[in-house]
Design goal:
- The protein is of the alpha+beta class.
- The chain has helices at about 1-15, 25-35, 130-135, 140-145, 240-245, 270-275, 320-335, 350-360, 405-415; strands spanning about 40-50, 55-65, 70, 75, 80-90, 90-100, 105, 115, 155-165, 175-180, 195-200, 210-215, 220-235, 290, 295-300, 305-310, 340-345, 365-370, 385, 395-400.
- β7 (about 105) and β8 form a beta hairpin.
- The chain is globular and about 80 Å long.
- About 25% of the residues are buried.
Length: about 425
């Protein structure tokens, strides 16, 4: 009995002194191992935090994926099925999708089902998954083998690989950290801008178990922190292909009803339809009533007698945030002549908007609302209106581009 006990202790000591042998010797071994993965079933949990808008949300995606598949005498590239849960502020919205034989089916949270032929060349996301963030949960190196060739340092990025050797408490890992290198001679250079990506690949198969992405645009005081954690349940298992092949759209899903195009809009032209739905030029601008950044009641009517640029925007809209410095300039430049900017935000509260504007040192008057005001069916941001001194709409449009600033200055000058 005593000898057996001592023998067991000796084996434990020997095991502790002799950690497991590593599976990989370099990141190229990880690459080669992943090429052998032909299918997988997994759960991915993605979280996104944005400090500027004080927002946090999560996605939980359950997916079955195939690198390629055959149907009859035809062969196709990837196939998948997934169930996606979007979680924010205690609410959950669910989505479903299926790709098989280049037929893409997506089911939205309102149970509407859309099916069409999938063309990788015209797809927003190369793996066919409609939502950008959901598409991130299917690791890119599984669907694009050229990804590995791009993971090298150059003048724009610094790539560092770290090999974490296995021991009694640690699984073998390869960790890649990719950091952007700023070009200080670039006209858009900002010392606070940065982007860092981090992948953690784990032995013995080499599949990623975590991805982190942190980026920040200093000129817009905006960025986000994304993290994805994977749990791999099955790999190279024949049942995965059967599950994807046998998927059938649930009976409760339904195709959307066909509706006629909005008068004045083209068939399927969302921009024309959206513009046609807005208050028209010459029409009296509908009322806008809310609170300013100090919590004091304010409205568009309070500015009657002045020329007013009404800007529907939110933190997180790239064109909206790019427009703000020029809107602040317009307020300062034309204000003495009876011009005002009125930002309209129904996405964030006054505290968040004030903190964001203060961080960028911008003074742009705001009205904060709980929802869109009646009479303004805005569907894209920024959407803006120039309101004349008598309260009628002079001009309106959506978006903000390179030429917009010059156009707006001319428009305001012509109507002061």
């Amino acid at each position: 009995m005593t000898r057996s006990l001592f023998g067991a202790i000796a084996l434990l000591i020997f095991a502790a002194c002799n950690p497991p042998e590593p599976v990989f010797t370099s990141e190229l071994d990880v690459r080669d191992a992943l090429v052998q993965v032909q299918n997988a079933s997994f759960t991915a949990r993605l979280s996104n935090d944005v400090d500027a808008s004080d927002s946090h949300w999560e996605r939980e995606v359950q997916m079955d994926w195939l690198r390629s598949h055959a149907v009859g005498e035809s062969t196709y590239d990837l196939a998948w099925r997934y169930a996606d849960a979007f979680i924010q502020d205690g609410d959950t919205s669910r989505y479903w999708g299926h790709l098989w034989a280049n037929r893409l089916t997506s089911i939205s949270s309102d149970s509407l089902r859309r099916t069409n032929d999938w063309d990788a060349g015209s797809s927003n996301n190369a793996n066919g998954i409609p939502n950008y963030y959901s598409s991130m949960t299917l690791p890119i190196m599984l669907t694009d083998t050229s990804w590995w060739a791009a993971q090298v340092s150059d003048s724009a990025v610094r790539v560092i690989w770290e090999h974490v050797l296995p021991n009694a408490d640690q699984t073998e890992q390869f960790i890649m950290t990719k950091t952007s290198i700023a070009d200080t001679t670039d006209a858009d250079y900002h010392p606070e801008s940065q982007e860092v990506q981090r992948w953690i690949f784990e032995a013995p198969i080499g599949l990623p178990v975590r991805y982190e992405q942190s980026w920040y645009l200093g000129d817009m005081a905006y960025g986000s922190d994304i993290a994805i954690d994977w749990e791999w349940e099955l790999t190279n298992d024949g049942t995965v292909e059967l599950v994807v092949a046998d998927w059938v759209a649930p009976e409760w899903s339904q195709e959307p009803e066909k509706t006629p195009a909005v008068a004045g809009g083209g068939d399927g032209d969302w921009f024309e339809e959206a513009m046609a739905a807005l208050p028209t030029i010459g029409e009296a601008a509908p009322a806008i009533e809310g609170f300013d950044l100090a919590g004091v009641a304010t409205s568009l009517g309070d500015l009657a007698g002045d020329l007013v640029y009404v800007d529907f925007w939110y933190i997180g809209c790239g064109p909206c945030m790019r427009a703000l410095p020029h809107l602040a300039h317009m307020e300062e430049e034309f204000g003495p002549a009876g011009f005002h900017v009125l930002g309209v935000n129904h996405h964030q509260d006054a505290k968040t908007v004030k903190r964001y504007l203060d961080r960028r040192e911008l003074d742009v008057p705001q009205v904060i609302l709980d929802s869109l005001p009646e009479g303004y069916p805005v569907v894209a941001y920024p959407t803006w209106f120039l309101v004349d001194r008598d309260g009628s709409i002079i001009e309106r449009n959506m978006g903000y581009g390179e030429e917009t600033a010059t156009f707006l200055d001319s428009l305001v000058n012509a109507n002061l």
